[in-house]
Amino acid sequence: MAGEARVEDYLALLKPRVMSLVVFTAFVGMLIAPGSINPIIGFIAIACIAIGAGASGALNMWYDADIDAVMSRTINRPIPAGRMAASEALVFGVVLSVFSVMLLGLATNWVAGGFLAFTIFFYVVVYTMWLKRSTPQNIVIGGAAGAFPPMVGWAAVTGTLSWEGFALFLIIFLWTPPHFWALALYKQSDYGAAGIPMMPNVVGEVSTRRQILAYSVVLVAASMLPLFLGFAGWIYGAVAIAFGAGFLWLAVRLWRASESVAMRKAARSLFTFSLSYLFVLFLALLADTFVTKMGLL
């Protein structure tokens, strides 16, 4: 029987670290979108996107409670630790999902509200319930869920979807495989014990490292799209080139690692760098947009 859940357990269900990146990319999508939005409405929109992301996390933990119980990095989550019943997480996630979608639709427009609903559905049903346990391509296809938020932010302002929003989606989408596969390389035993077919456990380390390098090359190329589409300037371009070079260097180092210890060290380095890469890239895009709108350049 589960013990009495604490406030911090409900907060843990929301996956706040994942939520923070979702909120930030959505915020950037909203601020760089053409047009304007009332600050209060904008705050409500960002709050709804955050709540929707948290709802996805809660539903993910509800469904994945069995495998969370056998993985070292997830064993202390509220459900496997016995502090919360799975049914509580389910109800919590469903209520937050409905609330966030309805409020976003009413506060902004139903393109944004509907897209947020689709994002939650994609993460919970398509990724968590279907892809995660069935294919080593789980994180490739499922990564789309984490790439949708800037498009939701864009739609909250414009009521439409656009190529600019898709470019932001593509950057996050292509970033996801090397980010998570680098983690999987030095956490293989965890994923193996849980029966999750992550790429290193299915095709081996050599093939995984080769695919990480390939995705990294395409990612860095895709990071130039904001320049080619005309909604970013030299500030973003300089940062994208510099950090893209760093990403590629770490991917090449991982690809060339021959010994197991060196491979795991290189995988951890790439994973750590990838955490800051996406944040810095979107921060540069925000700074570039701010400077341009203020007429400082």
TrEMBL record:
The keyword Transferase applies. The chain crosses the membrane at residues 12-34, 40-63, 84-104, 110-131, 138-157, 163-186, 212-229, 235-255, 267-287. It is a multi-pass membrane protein. It is an enzyme of class 2 (transferase). GO terms for cellular component: plasma membrane. Pathway: Porphyrin-containing compound metabolism; heme O biosynthesis; heme O from protoheme: step 1/1. GO terms for biological process: heme O biosynthetic process. InterPro entries: Protohaem_IX_farnesylTrfase, UbiA_prenyltransferase, UbiA_prenylTrfase_CS, UbiA_sf. Keywords: Cell membrane, Heme biosynthesis, Membrane, Transferase, Transmembrane, Transmembrane helix. Pfam families: UbiA (PF01040). The keyword Metal-binding does not apply. One of its GO terms (molecular function) is protoheme IX farnesyltransferase activity. Its EC number is 2.5.1.141. It catalyses: heme b + (2E,6E)-farnesyl diphosphate + H2O = Fe(II)-heme o + diphosphate. It is found in: Cell membrane. Converts heme B (protoheme IX) to heme O by substitution of the vinyl group on carbon 2 of heme B porphyrin ring with a hydroxyethyl farnesyl side group. Belongs to the UbiA prenyltransferase family. Protoheme IX farnesyltransferase subfamily. Carbon 2 of the heme B porphyrin ring is defined according to the Fischer nomenclature. This is Protoheme IX farnesyltransferase. The gene is ctaB.
